[in-house]
Specification:
Layout (H helix, E strand, L loop, with lengths): L3 E4 L5 E7 L6 E6 L10 H11 L3 E6 L17 H15 L5 E6 L1 H12 L1 H7 E7 L15 H19 L8 H15 L6 H13 L2 H6 L1 H6 L3 H5 L6 E6 L7 H10 L3 E6 L6 H4 L1 H17 L7
Parallel strand pairs: 3-4, 3-5, 5-6, 6-7, 7-8
Antiparallel strand pairs: 1-2, 2-4
Length: 304
C-alpha cells in the first residue's frame, strides 16, 4: 500500500506506512523510540512479511515531531499525547480486528499510555504486546552505566539542555553536528557491536526529529510510572527484551515489566545496547513472531 498521512484533530500530520491486506487476521502496530522514526523497524517489517504473508498487517508510523510527521506544540510533547495519537492511528488505520502492539523505548511507553488513558478501547482490541528496550518507571533505573555521582551530573545537564532545545521549535539538528556526535550516539545507544549502517540510520533519524521533540519529551519520559497499568492487563501474550549493555533502559526496567505482567516472556541479550531491533534482530523477530503465533493460534480458521 502507498504511504498514508493521518491528520489529527489538532492538525498534526502523522506519516504512516502500512504493509499487508486490510482483511488480515491480525494487525501489528510497531512504535519507534524517542528521536527515531518508523524505519528503525525495517528488519521486523521484512520478517513479518516473509513469515506471515497476508495473515498479518503491519503498521509503522512516525510519532509527532519525528521523521516525516509534522511538528507539534510544546504543550503536546508528552507521553499522554502520544497515547492519544496511538488511539487515533488504531481507530483510523486498523478499525477492526485484533492488534499486537510493539513498542521500543518511548514507543513502549506510548503503548502503556494508550492502555492507561483508553482502557476500554485497549481491552477490546489488543491481543498481544511486545516491549523492546523500554520501561514503566521513567528514569528510575537509568544510570548510563556510570557511578551515581556522574549519573546525577549527566541527568542535570541533560534535563537542562532538554529545556533549551524544547524552546527551539521546528528546527532540526545540523548534519555536521550529528556527524561530530556520532561516537557519543554510538556509545549511548549501542552495545558491544554496531553495524556502521545502523549508526548511519539512527543518525539520519535524529536529523529528522525537531529540536522541540528532542527536548520537549524528556520531562514526560522521565516522570512516567505505569507498573499498575501493566498489572491490570491480565493474561495477554507478551514479551519484553533488553540488552545487558543498555545504558538508557537497563535490565531492571524489563524485569519490572515482566514482574507486573506475569505472562511476559523476558529475554536479556548479552552484549547488546538500546537498539535491539538492529543489534539483535533475530531475538526481537523471534519474540515478536512468538507472540503473533500465539495470537493467530487463538483465531478462528480462515474460510477458503
Amino acid at each position: 500500500m502507498p504511504d498514508l498521512e493521518l491528520r489529527l484533530p489538532d492538525d498534526v500530520r502523522l506519516h504512516v506506512d502500512v504493509t499487508g491486506p486490510v482483511d488480515a487476521e491480525v494487525t501489528a502496530v510497531l512504535l519507534h523510540g524517542w528521536t527515531l522514526d518508523g524505519r528503525s523497524w525495517h528488519h521486523q517489517v521484512a520478517e513479518l512479511r516473509e513469515r506471515f504473508g497476508g495473515r498479518v498487517r503491519v503498521i509503522t508510523y512516525d510519532a509527532r515531531g519525528h521523521g516525516r510527521s509534522s511538528c507539534l506544540a510544546l504543550r503536546d510533547a508528552t507521553l499522554a499525547q502520544l497515547g492519544d495519537d496511538l488511539a487515533a492511528v488504531v481507530d483510523e488505520i486498523a478499525p477492526s480486528g485484533p492488534i499486537v502492539l510493539v513498542g521500543h523505548s518511548m514507543g513502549g511507553m506510548t503503548v502503556m499510555e494508550y492502555a492507561h488513558r483508553h482502557p476500554d478501547r485497549f481491552a477490546a482490541r489488543t491481543a498481544g504486546l511486545v516491549f523492546v528496550s523500554t520501561t514503566a518507571e521513567g528514569h528510575t533505573h537509568t544510570a548510563y552505566g556510570l557511578s551515581p555521582r556522574i549519573t546525577r551530573l549527566i541527568r542535570l545537564a541533560e534535563t537542562t539542555g532538554a529545556g533549551v532545545l524544547a524552546r527551539c521549535g521546528g528546527w532540526r539538528p545540523p548534519h555536521a553536528l550529528l556527524r561530530a556526535l556520532r561516537p557519543s550516539i554510538r556509545w549511548m545507544l549501542f552495545g558491544d557491536r554496531c553495524d556502521p549502517a545502523d549508526i548511519r540510520l539512527v543518525t539520519a533519524a535524529v536529523a529528522r526529529a525537531t529540536l522541540r521533540s528532542i527536548g520537549g519529551f524528556r520531562a514526560s519520559i522521565g516522570a512516567q510510572h505505569r507498573l499498575e497499568t501493566l498489572a491490570a492487563l491480565g493474561g495477554l501474550p507478551a514479551a519484553a527484551l533488553v540488552g545487558d549493555r543498555d545504558r538508557l533502559t537497563p535490565p531492571p526496567c524489563a524485569e519490572s515489566i515482566a514482574a507486573a505482567l506475569p505472562t511476559t516472556e523476558l529475554t536479556v541479550c548479552p552484549g547488546a545496547g538500546h537498539m535491539l531491533m538492529m543489534e539483535r534482530p533475530g531475538e526481537v523477530n523471534a519474540a515478536l513472531t512468538g507472540v503473533l503465533d500465539r495470537v493467530l493460534a487463538g483465531r478462528p480458521a480462515a474460510r477458503l
